[in-house]
Design a protein that fits this description.
149 residues, mainly alpha, rod-shaped
Length: 149
């Protein structure tokens, strides 16, 4: 099940829970959604591991910005459903929930570190470019006053 489906299912269940007079036990539905979200976390982890060296980038993006956007999209793919789950279920009460949180934290940390790594590399390259732009283009010989490149 794709995250979109997990996310949409959670939103759908939330609408039914908010209805007055509806007394339905959704615990089995949430446990199924937990299983599906766990599969989605594994899928995102595999996508990250497979593509982290050369991620698929949009055609018109610079490489660094493209990598950062790719990591953010993967992060968003897992962060929205877990927020919705945490609003409705106390994930710390069950072993499955604790494992889900642990897996989420590992993947989220890897994605954020990936983003920070490329951002810092980009930042360093900008500092080098600034230094190059501030350097003298022509040098005048102190005695002959002739300009050199």
């Amino acid at each position: 099940m794709k995250t979109f489906q997990v996310e949409q299912s959670l939103l759908f269940l939330n609408k039914f829970q908010d209805l007055e007079g509806v007394k339905i036990d959704f615990s089995d539905k949430y446990s199924k959604l937990l299983q599906n979200f766990s599969k989605e976390l594994d899928a995102v982890r595999k996508i990250y591991e497979k593509n982290k060296e050369d991620p698929p980038l949009s055609r018109n993006l610079p490489p660094t910005a493209g990598r950062i956007i790719w990591a953010r999209q993967l992060y968003q793919r897992i962060s929205i459903p877990i927020k919705l789950l945490q609003d409705k279920i106390d994930l710390n009460k069950t072993d499955d929930g604790k494992q889900l949180i642990k897996n989420f934290n590992k993947i989220a940390e890897a994605l954020l570190q990936y983003e920070v790594l490329f951002y810092r590399n980009w930042e360093r390259s900008i500092d080098l470019i600034k230094k190059g732009m501030q350097s003298t283009v022509y040098i005048r010989h102190p005695e002959t006053k002739v300009c050199f490149q």
